[in-house]
Amino acid sequence: MFYCDPFGMSDTEHLFNYGNDYHQHNYIFFHDQEPIHLDIHADLFAEVNNRNGDLNIGTGFKHAAIITSERNSDVVEQVCSMYNWESYYYFFHGWAALDWYRGYHRSFLVSDPQQRTITKSFISPNRIIGGKRKHRVDLMHLLLERDIVNAHISFPEVCPAEGTHIQDIAKPEQRRAFAAARLPWHFAGETNHPMHSCWLSLFAESSESLAYLVTETVATGRRHHLTEKTFKPICMQMPFVLVSTAGSLAYLRSYGFKTFDSLWDESYDLEIDDNKRLVLIADLLKHLDNMSAQQKQDLYTTAIPIVQHNYNHFYNGAFESILWQELMEMLDSIAERFND
């Protein structure tokens, strides 16, 4: 069994194997934390393959598998074709969210939905904007063009992960708008855009926001890869707009959650063109921003049965049961294949 450690690392230096003998009859490579990007991970995949040598070592054919947290993924299919791997999937980030956000439903940090006063259109935390997260820059430029004025938004001037300035990340036609925006934008009491992945936060800002704008890790190409970010509004009992790949809302609904097509237009999830999908999302957010305070309050009140369903589905065991069944079916499938 091969895996990367610590959490989130995906380079050859952090590749480990379980057991001392590389040349096992079968091997499994867990790449279940990070999305696959061939230009980043080619050396890692080659190292896994090299450590195991030729697939015909020994007396029998060696089975090799990669386990990912991506479903319906072109890039996973490409990797499997390159290395003669078989692919298996489970929703790793669903398990991570259950772990990281456990216990908040026993606290008083998340306010009662019935007691909230909605004054903002949405909340949108943004931290990493360079590298493979440039869709956040594209979306923010669209929001700047639409003069969104009534939202809680954080956005850096310099990417904290890569040290790259927004003027070097943005496209030439976007740079003037970002220069005028006077970045960085911080939430109250924050500096340097701290990492919030493994806990809930921003309770005051969230409790007065109609929706949570989730700018996911992956938002381009054919694949489904959601992270703990998507579960933050669920645990905060909020409606959400999901900036991710096409079909991500449907993917989330397949795990028993409900989305908000009864409140606003979610057809953006059907748009396969990545740029057009961002435009549809920006138009939706402008529509929410144009609402009066009373309209926002009324819309949130209408959403309460949905957010409570999602909250209970996450915290009362139903989501975990689905994940267990999925995980056991995956392991059974691997066992059957590797023991044939």
Question: What is the gist of this entry?
Answer:
This protein has 340 residues and is an alpha/beta fold. The protein has helices spanning 38-51, 74-83, 92-100, 134-145, 166-169, 175-180, 203-207, 231-235, 248-253, 274-289, 293-315, 318-338, and strands at residues 2-4, 15-17, 26-31, 63-68, 86-89, 120-124, 152-153, 209-215, 240-243.
Report on this model:
By secondary structure, this protein is α/β, with parallel strands linked by helices. The protein has 2 domains: 2-89, no CATH class; 95-318, Rossmann fold (3-Layer(aba) Sandwich). It is 39% helix and 12% strand. It contains 12 helices and 9 strands. The strands form 3 sheets. It has a 4-stranded parallel β-sheet with strand order 7-6-8-9. A 3-stranded parallel β-sheet has the order 3-4-5, sandwiched between helices. Strand 8, helix 8 and strand 9 (240-243) form a beta-alpha-beta unit. Helix 4 (134-145) crosses helix 10. Residues 55-59 have low confidence and may be disordered.
